[in-house]
Amino acid sequence: MLSSVVWLKDDFRTINNPAISSLINEKKSAKKVIYIFDKDKYHKQEAQRWWLAKSLEVFQEKLQELNITLDIISGNAEKIIKNLVNNKKIDKIFWNKSCHLDENRTEQCVKKILEENNIIFIEFNSNLLNPVEKVKKDDGTPFKVFTHYWKKAEKIYLENNQKIDERISSYSKKKKINKDIEAIYPKKNWNKKFEKYWDPSEEKAIEILNNFIKNNIEYYATNRDIPSLSGTSKLSPYLKFGQISVHQIMNKCLMIKSKKIGFRKFINEIGWREFSHSLLHNFPEMEKNNLRKEFDKFNWIKNDEFLKKWKKGLTGYPIVDAGMRELYETGWMHNRVRMITASFLVKHLRIHWNEGEKYFRNSLLDFNIANNVSGWQWVAGTGADAAPYFRIFNPILQGEKFDPNGEYVTKWCPELKNVPIEFLHKPWEMPEQLQNQINFKLGHSYPLPIVKHVEARNSALKAFQDLKK
DNA sequence: CCTGGAGTTGTCCTA
DNA sequence: TTAGGACAACTCCAG
Fold first, then answer.
1. Which helix (H) or strand (E) holds A34?
2. What's this model's pTM, rounded to 2 decimal places?
3. Which of A144, A214, A237, A276 could disulfide-link to A370, CB 3.0 to 4.6 Å?
4. Which nt has its C1' nearest the CA of A148?
5. Do residues A20 and A107 lie in contact, with contact meaning Cβ atoms separated by under 8 Å?
6. Closest nucleotide to the alpha carbon of A224, via C1'
7. What total number of domains does chain A contain?
């Protein structure tokens, strides 16, 4: 039987979802949503398999309320759609354009198949504020500096700003285990603890956004830097999987009456997401390669032992270790600490940013290629912006400045909880006598620093200087 | 084509 | 104690 179909991707919401709305408005009786799970694509995104499986569970129930079935099909999207077309299952198909580059390539192939078979399709822009190819300089070339990019992008957005459908659909919780979804959950058990921290539903995303705007956005400019506070929105995984759209966020923000600094800063972060996507769209080679070609000759160090210690949060630098452990435990890391841990890997250990990018890809619930790659390239100094190479985060200072009471560090590194605050961010300076008093032994209770800050800093500066010659 | 101001998130030394 | 400048030029981009 022929049906109208939504090809669902990372759009697990019913509000502000143009593809789903179009399906609902179709007059025909046969309506279907298909989700294609390509396990090759999730091969290196282990944490996200958990969020994805959860999202499917929740969304399937939600679609049931709307009398729409959700089919989960495993395999390669191009082949599967080709099959559905050949077997005369589809007569019209909607989807929201993905903001992922490799997915865009698949979409292109699918479009070709549909065109060849005279099947109507509609592709919507929903995952970015502006269609990615729309924001260009006046001469038609892409922006490379955020400020200029965002000035123009925001203007284009505001000129085309559309009202958001605010309909809230009701739904009741009914638990039912689905075999197709079961297979998507990661095989390892480490993800089970994510249950404690996250609820991947559309309702939760909206609740978080509303609370954030009500209580936090005003103080966002300063509080977002303190990892022990809930100063950030924590919406990133919801945004990644589309439990909420960037349009909904922007719209809500624009309704705020007093547009103070916190508001501006938060909107800017939306802008950074747009900018990253623009960069990756225009410079697709940056997914793996340095955007600044001169860095291809940079003397990175290969050190599997240090890399492993970094991943496990055993570098001996409390703020770095706390961040890495937060990531492992919750599938998320605070933004300030992402910068510190990334800088440590790339500058103190001088390990290639590719390694860090890969690990974050596998561990972050909010992983998004564009954001991840531009973030890492920014920290490494290989990216589009003009971040000077000598900007090396000092993990001790950063800890003292942004975790002054040590609340964050001791939460994730509880073995440090009796260390006096003046030594908390540099436990190696603690006199032995004091260590004995608190029953703490450096090198046993907590690792010695794997590199010395001053030496590592100087050696990184030298390596960067050598590069220029 | 030329010009000049500006560029996410730092650190460290000096006066 | 703290504020200011050096770090080192370079690229981007609007006018």
1. strand A31-37
2. 0.94
3. A276
4. C13
5. no
6. B9
7. 3
What letter would DSSP give residue A97? P
3-state secondary structure of A31: strand
- Tell me if A120 is assigned to some domain: yes
Task: Give residues lining strand C (CB < 7 Å).
Answer: A 137-138, 141, 143-145, 148-149, 151-152, 384, 386, 388, 390, 461, 465
The Cα–Cα gap between A87 and A81 comes to: 10
Nucleotide nearest to A336 (CA to C1'): B9
Which domain covers residue A25, as residue numbers?
3-124
Same domain (yes/no): A373, A431: yes
Same domain, A108 and A134: no
Please give the protein residue whose CA is closest to the C1' of the nucleotide B9.
A336
Q: Which of strand B's nucleotides are less than 7 A from any protein C-beta?
A: 6-12
Distances (CA, A) of A408 to A35, A309, A402: 39, 20, 9
Answer yes or no: do A229 and A372 share one domain.
no
Whichever domain contains A235, its CATH number is: 1.25.40.80
Residues A70 and A211 in one domain: no
- CA A271 to C1' B4, in angstroms, rounded, equals 26
CB A449 within 8 A of CB A317: yes
In the structure, how far is the CA atom of residue A392 from the C1' atom of nucleotide C7, in angstroms? 12
Residue whose CA lies closest to nucleotide C10 C1': A386
Q: Which of A14, A83, A359, A57 is nearest to A184 (CA)?
A: A57
CATH code of A68's domain: 3.40.50.620
Per-residue tens of pLDDT for chain A, all 469 residues: 788 999 999 999 999 999 999 999 988 778 999 999 999 989 899 999 999 999 999 999 999 988 899 999 999 999 999 999 999 889 899 999 999 988 999 999 999 999 999 999 999 988 999 999 999 998 899 999 999 999 999 999 998 876 665 544 444 445 556 778 888 998 878 888 999 999 999 999 999 999 999 999 999 988 999 999 999 999 999 999 999 999 999 999 999 887 777 898 999 999 999 999 999 999 999 999 998 888 888 889 999 999 999 999 999 999 999 999 999 999 999 999 999 999 999 999 999 999 999 999 999 999 999 999 999 999 888 887 756 777 899 999 999 999 999 999 999 999 999 999 999 999 999 999 999 999 999 999 999 999 999 999 988 888 888 877 6
Contacts (Cβ under 8 Å, ≥6 apart) of A275: A143, A146, A149, A150, A153, A374
Q: Round and report the angstrom distance from CA (A58) to C1' (C10).
A: 51
Residue A332 sits in the same domain as residue A308: yes
